[in-house]
């Protein structure tokens, strides 16, 4: 049987679908699995051995649909569920199974603090989508595969970081998901161990500010490495401290210890670090008893309440202590 699995974005959300992709490929006899995402997220799955063929969305959905029609799929597995996936399913006309979003429950939680979430992790619910095919979760957690070309030579790191370091992921898609610079500086000063800062080019200047407090101990790798190279630095690390962002889930896939720092979003949204039935170690850091947290599914550009207590009141001492215990 030939399947088209759709998840357009983003890095973390695509990684969270990988148990479903793997279980589909391994549990359905002779399954041929095709995967559709946005071109900008090609790196996330390019080395995934459970995917037989890739398709990418740029700007021309009609041309993409014409290309997909030629494949004559038996089933579409829609793990994104938006208007574009609706158009694709309608145009291809084959049977489909669609991920059940918790949009109403998320609205109640983020707007009124009423928790009606299922408590079932998003990765488990992705696999649940495949239940009509007899597919069950194998409990093996997330997948992330780093192409050989993106393996980082240890000599690319400063000499003092080649025998072990803690990775701190300072980037995130929205302001309310990120510790402010002064809190990141405080955290790094309290960790007496080599540190590598990870993020994109857009995080490079913040990384410079953070590293300025100790530019021997702290190496700012933001913007210096491609996504899969950053993933390889995660693989090399002793421990990962991360905001709610894609590298957090990549760290889980690579079975790294994770300290997850939550601001405008929350583990209550069923998106905390995930290891399946494995023995991955993680701890969530959430400021307790904040009625406004979480304020959003994805984060926002500014704090709606103007005080940003979800990050400003984070217990930096506790995070640093745990990092040194777990390294």
TrEMBL record:
<keyword id="KW-0808">Transferase</keyword>
<dbReference type="Pfam" id="PF01075">
    <property type="entry name" value="Glyco_transf_9"/>
</dbReference>
<protein>
    <submittedName>
        <fullName>Glycosyltransferase family 9 protein</fullName>
    </submittedName>
</protein>
<keyword id="KW-0328">Glycosyltransferase</keyword>
<dbReference type="InterPro" id="IPR051199">
    <property type="entry name" value="LPS_LOS_Heptosyltrfase"/>
</dbReference>
<dbReference type="InterPro" id="IPR002201">
    <property type="entry name" value="Glyco_trans_9"/>
</dbReference>
């Amino acid at each position: 049987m030939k399947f088209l699995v759709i998840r357009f974005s983003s890095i973390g959300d695509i990684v969270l679908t990988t148990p479903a992709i793997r279980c589909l490929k391994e549990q359905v006899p002779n399954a041929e699995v095709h995967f559709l995402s946005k071109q900008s997220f090609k790196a996330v799955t390019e080395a995934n051995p459970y995917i037989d063929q890739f398709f990418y969305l740029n700007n021309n959905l009609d041309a993409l649909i014409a290309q997909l029609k030629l494949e004559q799929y038996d089933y579409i597995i829609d793990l994104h569920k938006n208007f574009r996936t609706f158009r694709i399913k309608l145009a291809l006309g084959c049977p489909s199974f669609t991920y059940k979003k918790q949009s109403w429950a998320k609205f109640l939680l983020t707007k009124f603090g009423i928790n009606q979430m299922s408590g079932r992790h998003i990765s488990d619910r992705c696999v649940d989508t495949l239940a009509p095919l007899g597919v069950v979760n194998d409990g093996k957690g997330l997948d992330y595969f780093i192409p050989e070309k993106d393996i980082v030579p240890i000599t690319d790191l400063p000499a003092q970081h080649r025998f072990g370091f803690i990775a701190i992921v300072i980037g995130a898609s929205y302001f309310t998901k990120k510790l402010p610079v002064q809190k990141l500086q405080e955290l790094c000063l309290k960790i007496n161990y080599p540190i590598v800062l990870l993020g994109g080019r857009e995080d490079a200047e913040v990384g410079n500010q953070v590293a300025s407090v100790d530019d021997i101990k702290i190496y700012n790798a933001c913007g210096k490495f491609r996504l899969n190279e950053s993933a390889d630095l995660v693989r090399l690390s002793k421990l990962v401290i991360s905001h709610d962002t894609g590298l957090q889930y990549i760290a889980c896939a690579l079975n790294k210890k994770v300290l997850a720092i939550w601001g405008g979003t929350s583990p209550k949204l069923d998106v905390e670090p995930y290891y399946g039935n494995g023995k991955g170690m993680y701890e969530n850091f959430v400021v307790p008893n904040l009625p406004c947290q979480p304020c959003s599914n994805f984060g926002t550009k500014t704090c709606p309440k103007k005080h940003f207590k979800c990050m400003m009141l984070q217990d930096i001492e506790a995070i640093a202590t745990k990092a040194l215990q777990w390294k």
